[in-house]
Write a structure and sequence with these properties.
The complex is a heterodimer of chains A (598) and B (249).
Chain A (H helix, E strand, L loop, with lengths): L3 E11 L3 H12 L4 E4 L16 E2 L11 H11 L6 H21 L13 E2 L9 E2 L5 H15 L3 E3 L2 E9 L2 E9 L5 E11 L20 H8 L4 E2 L4 E8 L13 H4 L3 E3 L25 H9 L13 H13 L9 E4 L5 H7 L1 H11 L8 E10 L2 E2 L13 E3 L16 H22 L8 H16 L6 H15 L3 E2 L1 H18 L12 H25 L8 E2 L12 E8 L2 E8 L5 H10 L1
Chain B lengths: L3 E10 L2 E10 L6 H11 L19 E4 L2 E4 L5 H4 L5 E5 L6 E3 L2 E2 L2 H8 L18 H11 L6 H5 L1 H4 L10 H11 L9 H5 L12 H5 L6 H18 L1 H10 L4
Parallel strand pairs in B: 1-5
Antiparallel strand pairs in B: 1-2, 3-4, 3-5, 6-7
Chain lengths: 598, 249
Amino acid sequence: MEQYTIYDQDVLVVGAGGSGLRAAISIRQAGLSCGIVTKSLLGKAHTVMAEGGAAAALGNMGEPDNWKVHFKDTMKGGRFLNNPRIVEIFAKEAPDRVRELEEYGAVFDRTPEGLISQRPFGGHTYRRLNHVGDRTGLELIRTLQDKVVSYKPTVYMEHTLTRLLMDGDRAVGAFGYNRQTGEFVVFRAKAIVFATGGWGRMYKFTSNSWESTGDGAGMAYDAGAELMDMEMVQFHPTGMLWPPGVRGILVTEAVRGDGGILKNNKGERFMFNPEYMPELYKGQYAETEEEGYRWLTDKANNRRPPELLPRDVVSRAIYKEVLAGRGSEHGGIYLDVSQMGADYIKRRLPSMWEQFYSLGGIDITKQPMEIYPTIHYTMGGIWTEAETCSTSIKGLFAAGESAAGLHGANRLGGNSLTDILVFGKRAGDHAAEFAKNADFGKIDSSQIEDEANILLAPFTNQGKENPFKITQELQEAMQEGAMIARTEESLTKALDKVIELQERAKSIHVEGDRAYNPGWHTARDIRFMLKTSEIICRCALERKESRGAQWRLDYPDASEEWGKINIIARRDGDAVKLIHRPVPAMAPELAAMFEEIK
Amino acid sequence: MRDKVTIRLFRGNANGGTETDYEVTTFPGMVVLDAIHQIQGTQDSTVACRWNCKAAKCGSCSAEINGRPRLMCKSHVEDFADSNGVIRVHPLKTFPLIKDLVTDVSINYKTAEKIPPLTVSEEIPRPFKMQQIDVERIQEFRKCIECFLCQDVCHVLRDHNRKDGYFGPRFMIKIAALNMHPLDSENRLRQLKEEGGIGYCNITKCCEEVCPEHIHLTDNGIIPLKERVADYYYDPLKILIRKIVGSKK
């Protein structure tokens, strides 16, 4: 049997992005020991990539904003596939979490009155995104990092977990390896919080880092947890397009919130084309370019420009423009903010200026950017209960991007940074509560042996498959078949390819030893990526309608019946079992409120 | 632009290592990190490097490219290839080597633990009111992505190995961001002078030169802090006033 080191913690937090760190703060405040496991160094998680801001209805901008409007916007943005109770908790608690962040040391941009400044964003009725220039995610993660460190948890940097360890039907630990040495590790815990992020790495053009391989969802699924809304993958309308070396890197929505306009190769602001305006948003956006420009300086008397429609809408419009031959030189669309002037741009969007200047060789104060939708976020994930963030596995909690239910079929920009604060705290609080009344449980060592064998197989395997090659083929297949526009044919083709790759992945062979060996790491990551991709394709095939991020060319309309159903995916032996579960009903007072402010 | 360049890559671990040449195929906009990925994917999957965002926002892919501390994701191959099409890529020299381009930067995390977080007195009214002009200068320091290139280039740490005596530029500006925070009530000058070792910095500004976020670490951070420390410890009038009216905790 392979050697491994055992670590005991009252609560184990997997993932050190915003939700993991916020959970850890709560766990330490509750007086329990806490281990934080992260695949990278501390402070490098995907949260740093968030740019625009954290949405919370503080109402600092002289507009009549409150949690109810935020609730309504989020439900609408999610095309009513969201769990209304989760959204209610979120909208109500978001302002407190943002203020608390300031207490921890975050330094947001200020209004003339000295309060936190809020910026407009797609799908939000009022200016609601609390921000620091265009690097809000960095501010958030650094603030939480500094705070959590002062509570002295144990941080296991560069450790990868690959298997949830069970005691009967309860999660009591996790198994994996130390990336630096390759040594195996076993964590035993009374409760576990998954804050493991999303899985945007399955696509070729992605704004996601190497970490977004879906191991959290994959481990939970392997252990029998329910996943939900897996077909809902968000395509951010504006990813960098040219040169190829930068393709997919995110261009923040704040560019549009701060006056950036979208143009096709004829110089038209195509978002004003009434064809692109969904019924749900009619009458709420500027209908002339003049009004759109006036809104920049007079928000009270004008409606926002349609460039600020939710992400799914803008991504589809870009797709259609390019398809109609009105695309840019390299097959995208132009995003132009140069008319706002160099001083304004460098103050409001400093990191975008730097990103285009140093990576793309473009000065955005003088030239338009070329952009195309890029994979950005996964709305689906591990099913969680609204109040406690508990999952369908006892002892396992989930928060942030790895969890499902808040964003429904489409996430509004800015809701993710507050998601991780609100539900990071809740997951931490409730995991601590659970751990106080639980023991460490018993781990049957056959689970460890089984996983150790899976991990080590690529070294002794006689096969010839290269893990990077399989990753690349998977990314191409998903990009081709499960992107913005989907059909039964394209999804089936992607799924067939995924299944073929799952077979081939069994013959992966890697060289070298276990110390910091990327080929070896990828050999295990790819199994999670393949399983998660399979589930995405199956759920997207199952949902025979278009709703939010799921755009089926063969079922172009939203259907009333499908609007009442969340698709649940659960493991059934080697097969993926899909279950239709009714979307939780809105409590009468919420439904009534919805009518009242509509 | 050349079709191919040669990455002269340091391969090794704590026991030593050598340079190995890898030929890579270029494409428009290719950065050094792309080249390393190409090597991993097609030539040698054991090449170790750190990276995350590939957009100069996380500070993971620090290395020494042609001897200069740089982010690999922000360094175009065409800017760094010499007349023979060769680019030398080495790990950060100041930190102990783990493998290839991966170094042990844990000392930075240990230093961070020594710095108390923002402390705001209960008496300050909530929500906080601060003016943009008052927070702007600390926002500059808070742009830091913790790539540790400044720590790598700092000669106190690099050439004199005084990691025991000086926190390094990254942590000078971290303390500056707290010390200059309008609402912070902690006295941070003692830490700066004593265990922080601010006196070690002799303002060569190398840290400013390598900062990918263009933070003016020395001009806006370390120099004003040095002045505050000097004022606090060596200004006789201020010492007298403190004796009479008391000081921050």
